[in-house]
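Researcher: I'm comparing several assemblies side by side, and this is the next one on my list. It has 717 residues spread over two chains. Same procedure as the others: predict the full complex and return the structure.
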Amino acid sequence: MSKVSTIGPPAAATELALLVDALLPGDELFPAASAVGVQALLASRLELLRGASALDELARAIADAGGPLGVLDEAGRRVAVAKLQRQYAALFDDVLRVAYLAYYESAIVQGAIRALGFTYHAHPLPDGYGDQIGRFDPARDAPAHRRGSYVSTEGVQRVSLDGLSLLGERYGR
Amino acid sequence: MADSTKLEHADVVVIGSGASGALTSLVLGGAGLKVVCLEQGGWTAPEDHPHFAADWEWQRQVKWSPNNNHRASSFDFPVESTTSNILMWNGVGGSTNIYTALWPRYRPSDFRKGTEHGLAPDWPLAYEDLAPSYNAIDRIVGTCGLSGDLALPPRPDYPTPPLPLRPVGRRLARGFDRLGWHWWPMPAGVVSEDYDGRPACTGCNGCVSGCPIGAMSKFSLSVWPKALRAGVELRTHARVERIERDPSGSAKGALYRDRLTGAEHLQMADVVVVACNGVGTPRLLLLSDNLANSSDQVGRNLMHHTLAACEMWVDENLESHMGFVGGLISAEFAETDVSRGFVNGFNFNCTAGTHAGAQVLGPLSGVRAPWGRQHHAWFRRHFGHGFGAFAIGDDLPQPTNRVTLSATLKDADGLAAPHIEYRPHENDRRMMRFALDRLKDLATAVDAFDYRLHDYFSPEGVYQTPAWHLLGTCRMGSRPEDSVINRWHQSWDVPNLYIVDGSAMVTGGVVNPTATICALALRAAEHLRDNFRELRSATKSDPG
């Protein structure tokens, strides 16, 4: 069983919520990441990617970047997260990857995407987009150009490598 | 001690059930031969695919990752490399469980690079030798596309029409037209109409995790049912540890471990066919006391293709998250033109957009969408407006690009993992630099308001392409001195040993190789079938 962090579970949970909200704050249409539970998936998936000590590692990195986030105002949190990105690039990329994917798998966020006017399914199947994509229309979509050519087997001829000075080695051992 | 007493001698043992192994099994089993196919993984049922779950994009990062090392399943084997990002799937149907089935053919000149410039050998066969197999494979696999492309030799109509061009394809087509460059609807191993018991593509856009409905040809749904009906015995969870030889030097069978019981068995056969892909096949030969390697070419000449990519976004809402992942193909730069500063060429493979999660991760560029207050504005501007293009080119085979055995890393059964070294030739680097400039031209021609290029070089300067294409490591040739197999895929050293996967290829061409791998496997299997009486006891390989 992993330790949550040295700052205790409630504070650690708050830290994750503040972190994901710094990454994905809400606006008039899209909810903030913590409002759709991204921090919970971040906790479990980060451990899957980086091992049982991943949350401790993250807490230490945030502290090193100026955290904990809970003692900072919004502007201070942005500065700390930007520092986290610079100084712990690989860890931050895992955090961002997990947070983004968790966010966009939320049904509420997908509702926001639909509100933008898109037909958008939560997952590819079973519905697919067959009704939307239609069929190939030769009259409209077949190429009208007459471009394109190929060198036939008999037409292959030796090219000069004289101008390609670094390419002189023949194949083989 | 292996138990061989309970296993009936087979005519043919096929090692690997991916595309080439499936086709070989189908042809030989269909001829009434006793065929046993050994597969180290298991079946992947349609419902196992992530397409039906809310976390499907996340699953692509972990257990549905195409990277063995990321999946880290016991049915996979680890790969040791700091230079190659090897992608594959081990299980019934092989990597067709998770590929995207782009289905272009090689060009006639792809088979004649020795004649053309001498930095790679000629193939021991020509495009015309393979054309009938290409045509037959289209019918077996079920493909879609549009005939009449002047950039390739004439061909029959595809079994099904092209997939819809969609607003993305039309936008790209206008860009290509503006540049005066060739373009054509992408041929795909996908059925656009119901075909051969399979449903038409629904445009779900989940292609990068395979196709559980089988519209895209997943060989466990398209080919294997026919092979099993023909009487082929497919043994899953059967990991081959080595190919055994008899005192005469002929292959006598495959020693394998049943991964469910732990028991070892020796499946004996008159003919052994290896179909383990361009990494697994040389690994197995090397594990088998350097089998079939008097040429010292086993494992060498690994090719992945050159790759450069561009994601681009336009003002028009294209609803680009819908539809098949492939769009258009362009052969404008496919043939050698030394005035560009390199030999060989490349194609453009143009792709649709993605769903939201993948979109903000930068599916082609790896550039993440911005975080913070600007994220949602970025999303509104970019989502549904984006698409991409890969420039995929013919990398030169080099003996130093190589699969060997790791000295330290083992798979779950204690077998040495493959170690891989791959570095692009200076010619390949020149090609990729040229291709990046042409991708910029394309982004400009489609009036992209934003684009991102990707050259697949790490900050340390290491080229780490997503290596789906595992080619050349047991290449065919005209002479046993510098090749592993002859034009019929028969080992020069071990006449009853055949290699039918991508490792047989001499050059990589400018396109995705699956159609060619399948055509080659079909041709080899039909030759073996038609001459089986003589070939099962051959003591010398056919030089012709």
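Model: For your comparison table: The first helix of chain A runs from residue 9 to 23.
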